Amino acid sequence: MSFSLSGELLARPTPFYHYDLSLLRRTLEAVQQAARPRGFHVHYALKANVNEPILRLIKEHGLGADCVSANEVQRALDTGFAPQDIVFAGVGKTDAEITRALAADIWCFNAESAQELVVLNELAGGQNRRARVALRVNPNVDAHTHHYITTGLEANKFGIGLNDLPAVVEQLATLPNLELVGLHAHIGSQITDLAVFAELSQKLNELQTWLEEQGYTLPHLNVGGGLGIDYNDPDTNPIPDFEAYFRTFEQHLIRRPGQQVHVELGRAIVAQCGTLVSRVLYVKRSQQTQFAILDAGLTELIRPALYGSHHHIQNLSSQGDIQPYDVVGPICESSDTFGRAVPLPETQRGDLVVLRSAGAYGEVMSSGYNLREKAEAVYS
Ligand SMILES: *Cc1c(COP(=O)(O)O)cnc(C)c1O
């Protein structure tokens, strides 16, 4: 299967985001088919993409919501996610955000520090509530991914370090408005080596045994998200191997009787259904290279500039001879480059060029830098 756009879309002004809702539907069916028989609960990480038609479809397939701000919690509620299916993570939740999430009676706060637990306890008491919390631990597992999207190493700001855990657990006994319901970990993003998840499982097994020795039994475990996708070849691998992903946890995570296991997937659900569609404004040749200058830039898709990440780039208009192009955007930053020496058929002004796998961390990270207008989203 290769990417194409219908005639109507070919004539649209660019740049725009295109979302293939039928691929999203198939992805959601695949993830639930792999998760449900194994008794795993899938939460969708809203931060990857919060467009209404996408959220609605995700909700219809029975996923829960994983939020990292009170506005995301609100968006999830507005979409129809039930409060008991919403978790709230984040290393810097404000008092106002915690207050709003408590009032909404969401299922669980993934707490990331000793201080946050104190604040949460106090704010819950003020509302005469008991907040359900999972301790987000930093298990010091190397996700073998880009260092900007690694979150589970001691050098990262996320989670409670293993050294601090005993003191935090001791502190819990002094916080009557908190109910410890589980352990949480999220160690990074775009993880393609499943051995990383096996290692995470082993760390959680040890921590769980240790917590039981402290007198805590945990009804829930949350292993976070981070499953990667194939950015190089989205047509061959449009849907991640969810079977292998859940099998890894099934084999390595030692679940207690009746214990619920949760995952929080963002990228793996929505990345492949989204494409950034742009037109070539100019082709500019220098001594060393030739540039294809697009009308889309880092304002529409910042991942290459931010993480040096790769998106598959295709020229839909040309059948010419393959040549190398530096594919760049119009923004006044040298990092506004989508790829260097990208092999493309001979490219001209006006050609349609698409950046694939842009459904996750694309539109949500768009900005108005250079006073650019927000690119629209279309669905088919
Ligand atoms: C970002 C995030 C996720 C989702 O990560 P993906 O790599 O998109 O699957 C899950 N959990 C938490 C806590 C996150 O911050």
Q: What topology emerges from the helices and strands here?
A:
Blueprint: H1 7-10, E1 16-19, H2 21-35, E2 40-45, H3 52-60, E3 64-67, H4 70-79, E4 86-88, H5 95-103, E5 108-111, H6 114-126, E6 131-138, E7 160-161, H7 165-172, E8 178-184, H8 195-213, E9 220-222, H9 242-252, E10 260-265, H10 267-270, E11 274-285, E12 290-294, H11 303-307, E13 313-315, E14 322-328, E15 337-345, E16 352-355, E17 376-379
Parallel strand pairs: 1-17, 2-3, 2-10, 3-4, 4-5, 5-6, 6-7, 6-8, 8-9, 9-10, 12-14
Antiparallel strand pairs: 1-11, 11-12, 11-16, 13-16, 14-15
The structure holds pyridoxal-5'-phosphate.
How would you concisely characterize the structure shown here?
The protein is an alpha/beta fold. Helix content is 28%, strand content 24%. It has two domains: 21-270, Alpha-Beta Barrel (TIM Barrel), CATH 3.20.20; 272-379, Lyase, Ornithine Decarboxylase, Chain A, domain 1 (Beta Barrel), CATH 2.40.37.10.
